[in-house]
Amino acid sequence: MGYIKRLYQARLYYLFLLPTLAILLIFGFYPPLSALYHAFTNWNGATAEWIGLQNFKYMLEDSFLIDSVWNMLFLLIAGLITGNAMSLLGAAFVFNLKNSGMSAFFRYMFILPMVVPGVVVLLLWKSLMDPLTGLFNTVLASLGLPHEYGWLGDPAMALSSIVLIGFPWVAGLGFLIYLAGFQSISQEVIEAAKVEGAVGVSRFLRIDLPLVTGQIKLMIVLGIIGGLQGFGVQLVLTKGGPGSATAVPGWLMYEQAFSYSNFGYASMIGFVIFIVILAITFINMKFIKADQ
Amino acid sequence: MKGLSRRFPAGQLGLHLVLWILLLLTVYPFISMIFKSFKNFNQDTHNPWGITLPFHFENYTLAWETVRPFMLNTVIVTAAATLGIVILSSISGFVLARFKFPLRETIFYIIISLMMIPGILSLIPLFILIRDLRLIDSSWGLIGPYIAGGVPFGIFLMRGFMEKLPGELFEAAYIDGASIFQSFMRIAVPLSRPIITTLVILNILNTWNDIILPSIVLTDDAKKTVAVGLLTFTSQYNEQVGPLFAGYIITSLPLLLFFIVASRQFITGMTSGAVKL
Amino acid sequence: MFWSKKWHQSLAVALSTTLVLSACSSGSGGNESKPSAGASESTNVDSSSKAPTEKKVIVVDPGGDFTDYAPTTSMEKSDANPHPYNEIRVLADEWEKLHPEAKIEILSPTKSKDRKVAVAQLAAGTAADIIYQIGTFKDEDYPKGWVLPFDKYLDMPNPYAEGNAKWKDLYNESWLNRSGDGQVYYIPIDAVPIGIIYNKELFAKAGIDKPPVTYTEFFDAQQKLKGIGIASYMPIYRWSDITLETAVFANKIKEWDVLTPNGIVDQEEFVRAYKKGLYQVDSPENREYYKLKKEKADGYPNGWNSIDAYKAFVTGKVAMIEAVGIHMRNVQDDKERKFEYGTMPFPILLQEESAYGGANTIRGTAGYATAWQLTNSAAKKGTADLAADFLMYLTTPKNNARLVNNLQAAIPAANGAEAVEMFKPMYDQFQQDYKDGYLTWGAFYAAVLGGSEYGQAYEKLSVDYLLGSISLDKLLVELEKSMKKSVDGIVQQHKYDESKW
């Protein structure tokens, strides 16, 4: 019974954790568990009958859903690149500025956009990309270039247009995290590198970058978690369209729940997405730990 | 740093140039948002991207009138939620970081796994729960879920940070007879100021602008938040772009203010080495 | 104590500034029912009052299909607030005087328009007593008991309308969409004027001398416009497609409209037709329908799914837009518009043009639009009767006109209510077509009849087809799959008595 004894001895710690666990249990765990239960029913908001794995079967037959996985993968990978590459570079540039006044200035300016709600940014970009009245096509036309692009309305361009949003992708949380990462590199390391003759680009590649891999990993993990389930753009801009060109599983789940009232089916989709996120993050973490 | 610049002035010039270009590209959409906030419907229709005169300051008046009653609610909900998240995350992070006890890792990972649940999955059951707890129209119906939403990441950050605090400080305190709680309040918290600020800012940003939860939980005008209040400009067929953007600018100002004031601590928190894997 | 003075100070400054700003404002009270311009005194309705009061509170969520009927924040007309409105509050105050036992609270802005909000509220029983939902949703909601039937009220006399024997006399019977169980689950507030707005200048430039009436003329006009390099047409809603679909299937409607012969194929009749193979997704009529649709869509500008049609029209970038009342109002109001515009009804399909032509839908309006419903909240609170009474008050011809005309966006639904000047031509065209025996609006519309799942699949797949992403054959195959699944779901939910078929 040594285990019970240890539990008893640790009771103070559990006590400290209690309020947190209580709130998490009520508002954090209960809803998804309830949703999990309902994933096996035909819940429509009012009644719910148990139907076992029927919803899962529907998922396998749902061609819209299966096709949407490709869209999601495209957006996920493109998003990981745009969400990290430019902000990493931007942070590196700002980090290497000698003038501390300008450095602070750029730092503030690239962080400020975080204050604006995401919806606003999306709406702005939508009107920028309006094929007839948007800025992009208008400017292209005035330059005499081909300007009849459909952007978000063209099925061939729609996904790329979504990726385009936020260009040049520097500002935001990534910038902040990476800049902080660079700034936590101790001066000694930099001096030592200088002595070794490593400066500029060479130093960046051999010293700076490796020292922020921790931040990069965090951003990638968060990016994957978000990208697998995200549907904000679809909700505000495309509704999965044109046609089904920009549909992603997260969006289809939302549609099933709120447009068709198929809450049971939607819960099953959500549950499967969760399992996938869990699995990938798990693999991710193993990969990261192995690195260390 | 100085040595570098002396050796590569051209490099510095290049950096400045590139950064200015990136900045202008980044900032242009927001500048056009500011222009748009001064336009009326016709100006926005016929000249959406330029500066149009006259400026229609009444957009701001209208927007302010619309969100003014909701400012206090938003501040209360945001402040309470953020406070709750910070308190719970720091205590739990502290305990999970500095003490060993059975099930410690299990508890930690279970809490973290909450971050991976797609939000929309929980929406309806959460709403029904709030109704059953009779928290509809109550600010607590918002604050509770917000806290539960922010705590997992908060614990992740706090634990990461507190793990790195030097053990000697605590040893000394315990030898002097300090209780766990005292060591927490007198040592861990003051040292964690930067990471706490980080947590505060991130959560304020998230909560302030959230539309989904307040839309379904609050039916009473009295308790609405500004984010929901601004929806009035999108709910009419006529999207009144001017007051809408004016409203967003107005409601971003307190955030901006807070951000500027607390940013030094924020940066320190971010550089503390706890925000990574 | 543990924070440095400076940080503490700056934090305090930031917080207190915000608090002061909001404290100054909270003095005006959080629960602002916008003050009415009328002389009424009862402006502040305290719905959350827990104080002991006998008054029943009726909560109204006054959305609308094209414009909400919620009072605007301010009654001052300005560029930012071009259509100040609070007629509904004025009407509510008048009604309250007649019914001192009740109070009416009007939500502003409307919330139930957002379907996910409405669903959450209805599921939890916290919705407003009178709620606005797009008409199609009521067919999903009524089986769950989320909305209440109006039939018993419709058979009562409307005490506020002179000489009214039954409330339902104020409406065209065939236009009141009865749900699957034969009951009426909504009260229409307005009818929407519909048609096409066209740019007279561009028409002249393209050599189109009169507005097209038939599809042949319409396609011809599109070609001419393409010739001068202008996008010819932008849909805002896809309603002209509905009239096209009805036209193509017109001859079959008689075959299907047997269970309740009223000129409209309702859901049960449709399910019967589908199950008996009378309606098939892959049928010559449907192929003709899609062929015509595609020809029309070829004139749409590139990327039409993402274009703001109104803005494009008013800046002269597209020659025709499918429009409803509110666009017509806005085009009229636009002082910077540099061209003359005209309105015309949707094109019709003649027998000479197509094997399936000959019978068309009424032009001018699309039938009843804004649907206000009574919810389970009213049943729970016991306010259903009072709420229905309030609706009776709102829908007398005179009051309905007051309610709707102020916004100049739609035509009041009640028979005998006057429409605004701008919509009279539409209204007249509709009256004419009605007399001439044109088909009722929505006599047949598969996307609705087939259930919401089919409807959504249709939306996506038909757009894919129009954009050239999939072929016609694949479209029909996929639609058939969705239709089968969707109809099965309907049958399961409704448990029809198939012996009657």
From TrEMBL, chain A:
Domain ABC transmembrane type-1 residues, every copy: 69-284
Membrane topology classification: Multi-pass membrane protein
Compartment annotation: Cell membrane
Gene Ontology biological-process entries: transmembrane transport
Keywords of the record: Cell membrane, Membrane, Transmembrane, Transmembrane helix, Transport
Top-level division of the source organism's lineage: Bacteria
TM ranges: 12-30, 69-93, 105-125, 156-180, 216-237, 257-283
Gene3D superfamilies: MetI-like
A GO CC term attached to the entry: plasma membrane
PANTHER family linked: ABC TRANSPORTER PERMEASE PROTEIN, INNER MEMBRANE ABC TRANSPORTER PERMEASE PROTEIN YCJO
Name of the molecule in the record: Raffinose/stachyose/melibiose transport system permease protein
Upper classification of the organism: Bacteria, Bacillati, Bacillota, Bacilli, Bacillales
